[in-house]
Amino acid sequence: MTEKHVYSFNDGDGHDKKLLGGKGANLCEMTQIGVNVPPGFVITTRACLDYLEKNALPQGLMESIRGEIDNLEAATGKTFGRGTDPLLVSVRSGSALSMPGMMDTILNLGLNEETLAGLIEQTGDERFVYDAYRRFIQLFGKVVFGIADEHFDEYFEEVKIRVGVKADVGLEADHLREISEKFLAVVRRETGSDFPQDVMSQLQLAVEAVFRSWMGKRAVDYRREFHITPDMANGTAVNICTMVFGNKGDDCATGVGFTRNPGTGENEMFGEYLTNAQGEDVVAGIRTPKPLQSMQEEMPEQYRQLVALRDTLESHYQEVQDYEFTIEKGTLYCLQTRNGKMNATAMVRTSVDMYGEELISRDQALLRVDPELLEQLLHPTLDPDSATTPIATGLPASPGAASGKCVFDADLAEKLGHVGEKVILVREETRPEDIHGFFAAEGILTSRGGKTSHAAVVARGMGKPCVAGAEGIIVDVGLRQAHVGEHILHEGDVITLDGATGMVYLGEIATIPAHFSDELKTLLGWADEIADLKVMANADTPEAARRALDYGAMGIGLCRTERMFNASDRLPIVVDMILANNAEDRTAALDRLLPIQRADFIELFSVMAPNPVTVRLLDPPMHEFLPTEQQLLEQIDMLRLYRNVVRGRQTVLATFNPRIELPKPFDELSEELVNDALIKKERMLKKVRELQEVNPMLGHRGVRLGIAYPEIYAMQIEAILEATVECAQQGLSVRPEIMVPQVITSQELATVKRTIDKLTEQLEEGFGRKLRFKFGTMIETVRACTRASRLAANVEFFSFGTNDLTQAVFSFSREDAENKFLPMYNESGILQDNPFEVLDVNGVGQLIEMAVERGRGEREDLKIGICGEQGGHPESIRFCHYAGLDYVSCSGPRIPIARLAAASAKLREEQFTTSARL
Ligand code: PEP
Ligand code: MG
């Protein structure tokens, strides 16, 4: 039996998006639940793949299509390619995942010389018919024959100028007939053949073109950018649907709607429509549409139907829907629905609201929000105190604030973006081919189009600020400038957009950090209740700890103590410690550091009490605290020069009256002082040369420092334990955890532990009570993974340092790989992700699992976490849950994302698989 490639909307399975594409599946589903959808059918994604493979349509496909066309004729009473009531169809692409504007659509297919005459006879509306015809010829020419829009636009503009109208509604039937004829001539000129008159040939050519658009550059780029793998969407379906017209008079309209406000999440009618217009007019922003609410007065009955449609869609799909509709002669048709793409604010609010309305469960409320989306809520907004008068105002199309140099085309935006410039893409309106400019831009500004225009929808999906339809701006791409009232914006001038208010400002404006909404707090509270994983912060200072608490951190999973040494009052002492030539001098410097570290820990523990704080003992190679050899050589040269100046000054003084007053700085530094500075710098240079290593990240660092200079670790341990005593005496319940970095063997741990035991004993004697703390190790070397059971015998917790572990497993330098060859590896698909960002489940993950198993085999209650950068990445967190870790630790702003990801990992634990490893 040959495979079924064509499904009527009446019998396609609405759940099979892979086969029917998202759009097709939803058209079937809507038809089957009684929504008024024009009759139609879907050609499957498998037919597309077959076509792409063999470069020919599957056998029998055209016969099946003919059969479905017969059914459409029967259902509508119309005739395809003939008669006075001709059947016209739309041909739309639609893959399993929505890829807005990436593939092709053709409207009004079925028009030819005969049906044109028939339709004029039936409608008596020559203007309407020629308008449909010219649209069809242009779209068909573009999609099927690849004829660029400019060839058509040229004639269209010419007629508009001659007639003296701005918008196409001002054109009469004769003008549109003339335009249609010119368009037919364009096709003839560009292809060497006449426009096809046989409607089945039109249909076949259109289906083939839509299939091919799956492999078009735009679609391929889009899939790469959004990591859409064949597993997620493979091939496009083609939807053939009976045309209904929103441009047959004033009792007709077309529009797009969201079942809730996609910018705020508010439960209200949201969308735009145009009377007497076709769908593409709304999205293309050619005429500025009206808000749906205006329909209440203009077309009350249809508005009532629209409210009913919205309610039906939302309660059926249990998700906010983004739908398209057309009203033809008073009858409302739904042409498409899909899950609404919203910004983070709206996603969070609708989750909490829809749970409150008993539309969805709590689990659904959590799962429908992509954790990464929360990143948007952490974006800054404009500081109201520094906002000045706007130079233009448009529609607040996608919230967030951004500043950058204005750039008038997508190619330049991409170029500048790649070299690290911040740019704002400024266009009259945007089209799908501008997508690369969106990726590179900080924000988008258009002078035409509504909140559902291409610019607005794409920017919202990307979480980038967008101001749309700022009509006061006149963009002149040729001159590379835009007129805004009395201002002229030149390419490269800096502007600021506020996508939440629609304001555009000249220059850069200060921003303030985002704050948590109550809805987000509610949602993350639910997440915490469900998740098994705890979410800790990587934080090194009390201020960072406070911020992390605001983000919902449940403790500190990594305090890198070396970061505490960088303040200007500490660094000189650390340098003295490093320059010390013997243990005695080193201890003297450490004695000065001890009270400083202790005070830091007291504050850190107090801020986090009663949550745990994991303090990692000193890790980086010592040279990181010293200037580079090059810097020192330059400084020494300068000092020598300066010494000569000082000597010259003395010669001057000896020549003149010794009481002569010389201007500053000549009376400040003596030769002795300069000499002291020189000696210090030369000592430093000597030390820098001594410490030099070919590969310092694999060199003398971590616990190896602690073993070589035990007094350094002893000082840090003493500071931690004394801070613990001090806090306990203040009545605080603190839970410090001492962590050793870079461990490879249990002997290293045993050495550090001896110092801890000795100090604990001394302190407990004075304190009179047992000290409560944990001792643990980082697991960031391959050997630590293989020796995990021996290590576990010495510690109470493990923390995977996946930055170093990834470096070790891949043999990629973590310092260089990301700037050198990794982007190339990612682009060419050799590696799917950057393993320093996304945990390499297949390689590093296997070592983690082994270490967990061996560690817990030795010590059942071993606490295990991760503190490398990957600890804040949702898919990596999913693996951590699967691997049985107790916590993840990440930087402050990633904490909300990690909390939601931890809940999502728990809710989807059944679906986790590591099958790709095999
Ligand atoms: C790690 O290696 O993953 C880690 C957290 O330590 P650092 O990045 O400080 O080396
Ligand atoms: Mg490390």
Major sheet attributes: 8 strands, mixed
N-to-C span: 34 Å
Structural class of the helices, strands and pairings? Answer: alpha/beta
Bound molecules: phosphoenolpyruvate, magnesium ion
Number of helices in the DSSP assignment: 33
Radius of gyration equals 34 Å
Helical amount: 40-55%
Strand line-up of the largest beta sheet: 12-22-21-14-15-16-17-13
Uncertain stretches: none
Give the percentage of residues in beta strands: 15-25%
* Number of E-type strands: 31
The overall pLDDT, averaged over residues, is: 91
The backbone outline, from C-alpha atoms, is elongated
Short description:
Helix content is 45%, strand content 16%.
Task: Give the SSE map.
Layout: E1 6-8, H1 17-32, E2 40-43, H2 45-54, H3 61-76, E3 89-95, E4 105-109, H4 113-123, H5 126-145, H6 149-163, H7 173-191, H8 199-213, H9 217-225, E5 236-242, E6 253-258, E7 270-275, H10 279-284, E8 290-291, H11 295-298, H12 300-317, E9 321-328, E10 331-339, H13 344-356, H14 362-367, E11 381-382, E12 392-393, E13 395-398, E14 401-407, H15 410-418, E15 423-427, H16 435-440, E16 443-446, H17 454-462, E17 466-468, E18 473-476, E19 481-484, E20 487-490, E21 494-498, E22 503-506, E23 511-512, H18 518-530, E24 534-538, H19 542-550, E25 556-560, H20 571-579, H21 583-608, E26 612-616, H22 629-655, H23 671-691, H24 703-708, H25 710-729, E27 735-740, H26 746-767, E28 774-779, H27 782-786, H28 788-792, E29 797-800, H29 802-810, H30 822-827, H31 844-858, E30 863-866, H32 874-882, E31 887-890, H33 895-907
Parallel strand pairs: 14-15, 15-16, 16-17, 24-25, 24-31, 25-26, 26-27, 27-28, 28-29, 29-30, 30-31
Antiparallel strand pairs: 1-2, 2-5, 3-4, 3-5, 6-7, 6-9, 7-8, 9-10, 11-23, 12-22, 13-17, 14-21, 18-19, 19-20, 21-22
Helix pairs in contact: 4-5, 5-7, 5-8, 6-7, 13-18, 18-33, 19-21, 20-21, 21-25, 22-23, 25-26, 32-33
The structure holds phosphoenolpyruvate (PEP) and magnesium ion.
